[in-house]
Design goal:
Layout: H1 8-11, H2 19-32, E1 38-40, E2 46-48, H3 50-58, E3 68-70, H4 76-91, H5 95-101, H6 103-117, H7 131-139, H8 143-155, H9 158-166, H10 171-190, H11 197-204, H12 209-225
Length: about 230
């Protein structure tokens, strides 16, 4: 096998380990040796095992001494998806962490969709479909949740983002609190009428009790202020 190669674009798709995770993995490789092979394609490009490769070379292993397994995928997009899924699944990322980590991919899909609009069907260079739907499929996340997550990410509320990253709240809860409900209340204030609780529940279509409690509390405050 020729020298193993690390592509920056693939490395950027890999969740970086915490200092603690890196230390534990390094100690395991030193004491127990390499158990799982590093997955590469036929060109020697690493698809899965970037951190292990980094540690193994750091402790003096040559490429010829490193266990590898070849996994060839003809389609470039499918190969990229494999790199992302094989690494993120091991880290057990939640939906928002995935949406945030691979946001650059959404930007790329959006650029491709915009480019498609400028050409006729015969001239389109990229796969058809909305950027949100393509990104949601790429991540394995529902399209509505993906769209809400992107909106929260772009809204930039630091406290909400930290809660989402830590997994102490949900995309649905934060979207209802920050985006859905205030927009709806402002709209109805101008009409000089407040919504019923039932309409709020129907509008948001949620079974998230925390989100619902937030909505009801805001509705009561709004009703008392009008």
């Amino acid at each position: 096998m020729n020298k193993l190669k690390v592509l920056k674009c693939y490395l950027d798709l890999v969740p970086r380990p915490t200092t603690e995770e890196y230390t534990v993995l390094k100690e395991s490789l030193i004491l127990e040796g390499q158990k799982d092979p590093i997955v590469i394609n036929s060109k020697g490009i690493i698809l899965d095992g970037h951190t292990r490769y980094e540690i193994l070379t750091d402790i003096g292993k040559k490429d010829s001494e490193i266990l590898t397994r070849i996994y060839d995928i003809e389609d470039a997009d499918e190969e990229e998806l494999y790199v992302m899924s094989s690494n993120s699944n091991r880290r057990q990322l939640n939906a928002f962490q995935k949406i945030e980590m691979y946001y650059k991919k959404y930007v790329e899909f959006k650029r491709q969709a915009d480019d498609n609009l400028k050409h006729s069907n015969a001239e389109k260079k990229y796969p058809l479909g909305g950027s949100i739907l393509r990104y949601a499929t790429f991540l394995g996340v529902g399209s509505r949740r993906c769209q809400d997550g992107i909106q929260l990410l772009e809204a930039g509320d630091k406290n909400a983002l930290n809660r989402l990253r830590a997994g102490t709240t949900t995309i649905n809860t934060e979207h209802s609190r920050l985006l859905d409900y205030p927009k709806q209340i402002n709209h109805r204030k101008y009409k000089h009428s407040y919504p019923s609780i039932k309409k709020l529940i129907d509008f948001n279509d949620t079974d998230d009790n925390q989100a619902l409690n937030i909505m009801i509390e805001k509705w009561r405050k709004w009703r008392d202020d009008v």
